[in-house]
Each structure stands twice: as structure tokens, then as C-alpha cells.
Design a protein that fits this description.
Helices cover about 35% and strands about 20% of the residues. The protein is α+β, with helices and mostly antiparallel strands. The longest helix has 19 residues, at about 15-35. Strand 1 (about 130-135), helix 7 and strand 2 (about 160) form a beta-alpha-beta unit. The strands form 3 sheets. Strands 3-4-2-1-14-13 form a 6-stranded mixed β-sheet. The protein has helices at about 1-15, 15-35, 45-60, 70-75, 85-95, 100-115, 145-150, 170-175, 245-260, 280-285, 290-295, and strands at about 130-135, 160, 180-185, 190-195, 195-200, 210-220, 220-230, 235, 240-245, 265-270, 290, 315-320, 320-325, 340-345. It comes from Streptomyces coerulescens.
């Protein structure tokens, strides 16, 4: 009886040649069913058309006009997420038993991989001589002291904070004083540094109040111009689409200020309320590199903190080499902090 029970248990485990053979037979029957179906090329024409349209939207996103509701910028903000439609279309193609649809789905898949496949790889390097971080702390943050301590724990040499309120500034100053000897707050943005600051001033981004600043940081590897900015928010409204006119105007003004910067090495830290794909930030992105794009791992989404869908908090550099870039753990804000390690002295081996 024991021997019989053993044999029965082995057979029911399904790991032997019979199980593998039955699996192959099922695949053969499925393939034979498709081969014997003369309609596999005629079905799924609509799915195939949708796949081609999806590919064209991703490939030609820069041609989508912003005239109506800033539709182009809205598409570019969430462009990576269009890739989610690829597996959906693939599954629908399987359900419809459509060879035409399945082949057509390869087109948007290839386009998406061409646009974003490089961001899926780990480009993080070692080395660097300066660590920077930026965080939109949220004006309604219930724990500003804890948020400040969390950001300082990143080990950053220079920290930028955005959306500072008058009431919360003393709390941030007290919490960061032990780590950062030098700091300046201009309007609703601030800069904390382990190294001396000079040439501190607000930057006019055409808002009527201060949400951007500039300072020269005397790092051991040389002088670096550090810009901190919080561009105006954007909204998605049913009656107006993607309302971003003021954000776009401020981005142009910030781009002009950075272009006029006398120092060769510059870093931009802040909440730009836009992604690197958004054409509205071209005045900035055309002259600076994203540390996440150059030396990060993954998409590096930073907002909203509870379920990040876009990287609108940016670290960008000019005349400086990005070495690594990452997001920090969630704080009391609705944004995630982001950090980067860069090489200021690019002449060093």
C-alpha cells in the first residue's frame, strides 16, 4: 500500500514526462487551431489600427499642438504611461485570435522601448565630489522638522527646499542648522549648504513674487552656480484642458537667467511642475542635462508621493558630470525628495 500511495503521489505531482508532453500537446493544438483559421488575418483590424495610432502618438508627440488645452504638453507629461496600452492591446489581440493585431502591437512596443527603454537600465556610477538634493516640502506639511531631518539624512552637501511658508521657515532653519552652516531663504524657496554661499539673489520668473533664487556655492571642487526654482502649478480642467500658461512663461524666464549665468558650472534644483519630455521646458532642458536621465535607475518618478506617476522634481546640470541619481523615501510631503551625486571637477580622472 505504501508503494502504491507513493506512485500515485508522484504521478499527481505533474513534473514528469507525461505532464510536459500534455503541455506540448496543448500548445500544438492551439497553434494548429490558429493555422487552420482563415480569419486570423481579417479579425482585429480595429485593434491593429489602435496600435498604429498609439505608436504615432508616442513617436510624433512633439507635433501634437498646444493650441487647444495644451494637449501636447499634457501628453508629454504622462508619455511613459502610454506604454501600458501595449499589453492591453496584446491581450485583446489574443482574445480576438488576430494575427494582424498581434503583429501591429509590436510597433508601439518598439517605439516605447526606443523612447524609454534606456531608462529601465541602471546607469548609476560611482565617484563624484558633490551631493545635492531637492524637495518640495508642501506648504501643508504636518511635520516640517521631521521632513528636514529626513532630507539631511541623505548626506547631501547642498539641499534646496520649495514651497516654504513663513511660519514653517524657522522650523526648517532650526532642524537643518547642525548640518548646514550656510543657508538663504528667498520668498518660498531656500538653499542650505555645507559650503559658503555668495552672490545670493532672487530670480525673477515673471510671477510677481519670489519662487526662484540663485547662489554661488564654494565647493571644494570649485564654484558652482545653484538655482532653486518652483515653477507655477499646472491644472487639468474639463473646460480648459491642461492649463499651464504661467508655468510656461516662468520656464522661459528661468531658462534666460540660466543662459546668462557667468559661471561655467551650474545646477538647477527644484519643482518644475513638468517632465523632461514637456516641450514647455525647452528653454531649460535644451541647455541642461537631467541627472536622472544620465545617471539614474528607472523612471525616478517623484509625484504624487503616494503613487508616483511623473518626475516633476528635477536636478539638472550644466558643465558638470552626473554620476548617480535617485529618489529618497517619502516624507510628510506630497512629493518625494530627489538627490544626485555629481562631479564638479570634470578635469579629474
Amino acid at each position: 500500500m505504501a508503494q502504491q500511495a507513493y506512485v500515485t503521489e508522484t504521478d499527481s505531482g505533474g513534473q514528469g514526462p507525461d505532464r510536459r508532453g500534455s503541455g506540448l500537446r496543448r500548445l500544438n493544438r492551439l497553434a494548429a487551431g490558429w493555422r487552420g483559421d482563415p480569419r486570423i488575418w481579417r479579425r482585429g483590424i480595429v485593434l491593429a489600427a489602435l496600435a498604429v495610432i498609439l505608436a504615432l502618438v508616442m513617436l510624433l508627440h512633439a507635433q501634437i499642438p498646444n493650441v487647444i488645452g495644451n494637449l501636447g504638453s499634457l501628453t508629454e507629461t504622462f508619455l511613459p504611461w502610454l506604454g501600458l496600452f501595449v499589453p492591453v492591446l496584446f491581450l485583446l489581440g489574443l482574445v480576438r485570435r488576430s494575427a494582424t493585431a498581434l503583429i501591429a502591437v509590436l510597433v508601439p512596443a518598439i517605439v516605447w522601448l526606443n523612447l524609454f527603454g534606456g531608462q529601465l537600465t541602471d546607469k548609476t556610477g560611482s565617484g563624484g565630489d558633490l551631493t545635492v538634493a531637492t524637495h518640495n516640502v508642501n506648504a501643508d506639511n504636518p511635520d516640517p522638522a521631521g521632513t528636514a531631518q529626513d532630507v539631511a539624512a541623505s548626506g547631501a552637501d547642498v539641499v534646496a527646499l520649495e514651497e516654504l511658508t513663513t511660519d514653517a521657515v524657522p522650523t526648517y532653519e532650526k532642524a537643518l542648522a547642525a548640518t548646514y552652516k550656510y543657508h538663504s531663504v528667498q520668498g518660498t524657496v531656500g538653499l542650505w549648504s555645507k559650503y559658503p554661499l555668495s552672490g545670493v539673489r532672487s530670480v525673477d520668473i515673471q510671477l510677481g513674487w519670489t519662487r526662484a533664487m540663485r547662489a554661488a556655492v564654494a565647493t571644494p571642487a570649485g564654484q558652482v552656480a545653484v538655482y532653486v526654482a518652483h515653477l507655477p502649478s499646472v491644472r487639468v480642467k474639463m473646460e480648459a484642458g491642461f492649463t499651464a500658461r504661467q508655468r510656461d512663461k516662468s520656464a522661459d524666464a528661468l531658462g534666460e537667467a540660466i543662459a546668462d549665468e557667468p559661471l561655467d558650472k551650474a545646477v538647477l534644483l527644484g519643482d518644475l511642475n513638468g517632465t523632461m519630455n514637456d516641450r514647455a521646458l525647452r528653454a531649460i532642458t535644451a541647455q541642461m542635462r537631467s541627472t536622472q536621465g544620465a545617471s539614474g535607475s528607472g523612471m525616478g518618478f517623484s509625484w504624487p508621493a503616494s503613487f508616483p506617476m511623473a518626475r516633476i522634481d528635477q536636478i539638472m546640470v550644466k558643465g558638470i558630470e552626473p554620476m548617480s541619481s535617485w529618489t529618497l523615501p517619502e516624507t510628510g510631503s506630497d512629493h518625494l525628495p530627489v538627490a544626485a551625486r555629481v562631479k564638479v571637477d570634470t578635469t579629474a580622472s
